[in-house]
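Supplementary Methods S3. Complex input for the tryptophan-bound model.
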Amino acid sequence: MDRVFSGAQPTGNMHLGNYLGAFRNWVRLQDNYECVYCIVDMHAITTFQDPKTLHAQTIEAAAAYIASGVDPEKSVLFNQSQVGEHAELAWIFNCVARMGWLNRMTQFKDKAGKNREKASVGLYVYPNLMAADILLYKANRVPVGEDQKQHLELARDIAQKFNHDFGVELFPEIEPVIMGEATRVMSLRNGQNKMSKSDPSDGSRINLTDDQDTIAKKIKKAKTDSELLPAKAEDLAGRPEAINLVSIYAALGDMSKDEVCAQFEGKGFGDFKPALTELAVEKLAPVTNEMAKLMKDPKHIENVLADGAVRAKAIAAPVLAEVKAAIGFVR
Ligand code: TRP
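Predicted complex, serialized as structure tokens:
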């Protein structure tokens, strides 16, 4: 059976973008694949994290996955740092990947900015750890957003070079799984920027911890334009904020953007926003309520993660053993 692996960092609040772009799709994959879902806390520390906050946000992330429908019985759900094999394989991949490959990574350039010299070494080799995450489970299907595609290509190159250098067929080909409508949810304040937990404006995103009134207020204040909605989605071109709200509606309602436009053709945002609010509240309430319930019992979530780590290790340890044998390590 094909195996799915995906992960998200426990930095900042979980929001609508995480839900529509990631969690909801992970849930759908559970029925057809063996799925491994990871909270990548070791990726998180490539930039400094306050320990208490990191701990709390790891619990919050687990609650968000579960509340969204990730079933810890069906899938393996764990946090990365509890499975030491990730770090071990990442070291080996540090010795397989080439400097030149990492130098091409646009996310490092964006995140490090002008101050490259002050970025952590971990931030630079971050994609090698990501390759280790995936390949440790011989996962061949990896659902990610557009921004992670370059990292997946690197993971593919690492797998190929490893297989080639050591004359083995150990690692499979990785296929990115591209997700449906609104995989890229944009900021409510600026349709050019991705909805992000690191945006200083809380009004730019809908958090999975927001209550109904807050959701309503944020949608009401969302940036829009004064034009009407067209009959076809293609005629939204050049209106990033309008596209974003229509995409969110489409994703929440399991519709295409064309269907949303057809429904609201000729209407302005004064009509569209209340409809969007109603849909958002209806679809998100079960998730946010369940999440709030789960967060009341952090011990339970810790137990779920510990159990997931044991199951993850059971898959990862034999693969790492194979890798070590291929390299020639005495065991
Ligand atoms: N780098 C991913 C992100 O920031 C998170 C991640 C880490 C991941 N390891 C992964 C995603 C393995 C998919 C597979 O979104």
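Residues 6 and 37 are 5 Å apart (CA to CA). Residues 5-9, 40, 43, 130, 133-134, 142, 144, 148 surround tryptophan (CB under 6 Å).
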